[in-house]
Amino acid sequence: FLTLITQTDPLCQSTLISELIQDQLCEDLKANSLDISYFPGGINYEIPRDEIDKNGQMAIKTYEKLKKRLNKRKVWYFSSPPEKKPYALLAILPANVSNDIHHQQLLDCLYDRLKTFSMNENSDIKKHILSIEFIPLNLILDSNDISNQFIIDCDSIETKQQLMEKPLKFNLDNHSITIDLRSYDEDIQREYDKFIKAEKYRELIKNHDDAVKRIPIKK
To answer: Contact at 8 Å (CB) between 167 and 174?
Structure first.
């Protein structure tokens, strides 16, 4: 496999790259590229010269750093691209109380928010919330530092936008709780993108590990 390393833009077509590869190959690389956000230091990580051999390959310890960071990262697994839910919200619960908030508590708070937008006191507020589903992310990802979520299915974009205007606030055991409301499609797509990146990096690590195994041991 081909590894491109640059100081700034990882897809920058430098003069050297232009001399080495054809334009079409460069475009193919862009279309199938990996960013380096998983390296220590993120996208600004500059690989020290002593970690690159004379052939331009990264040293084993660089891959080990990548592998270690990737193994620690909690990534939501997807068996397929997420289904679009344009009317849905994600309620992000505070991590320290995410197991203490129940469906009915959240639902009542949503109803109270919708009442402030209703011009008719006799209108049926309840019809605007179709369903609420609890997602125990701290169990799925095996981490107490990750917030659990609720998926809230609304009846329309208008209802969704009204609820998203500001975070929900209510009292739980005499403590003020703030729940962030986000667009389901946007948030889940970000999680899916993280998963795809993680899978690509796992493949990169696997290819590297396989290549190392094929290197004959010098006696």
So the answer is: no
Residue 91's pLDDT is what? Answer: 94
SS3 annotation, 24-58: HHHHHHHHCCCCCCCCCCHHHCCCCHHHECCCCCE
Nearest Cα to Cα of residue 27 among 38, 18, 15: 18
Q: Answer yes or no: pTM beyond 0.90.
A: no
The set of residues, in sequence order, having a beta carbon less than 8 Å from that of 162 and lying 6+ positions away, is 113, 114, 117
* Amino acid code (one letter) for 20: L
Structure-block tokens of residue 62:
């660089």
Count of C-beta atoms within a 10 Å radius of residue 120: 7
The answer to whether 85 and 160 have CB atoms below 8 angstroms apart is no
What domains, with CATH codes, occur in the chain?
88-190 (3.30.70.330)
Residues of the chain with pLDDT under 70: 1-73, 98-99, 122, 204-219
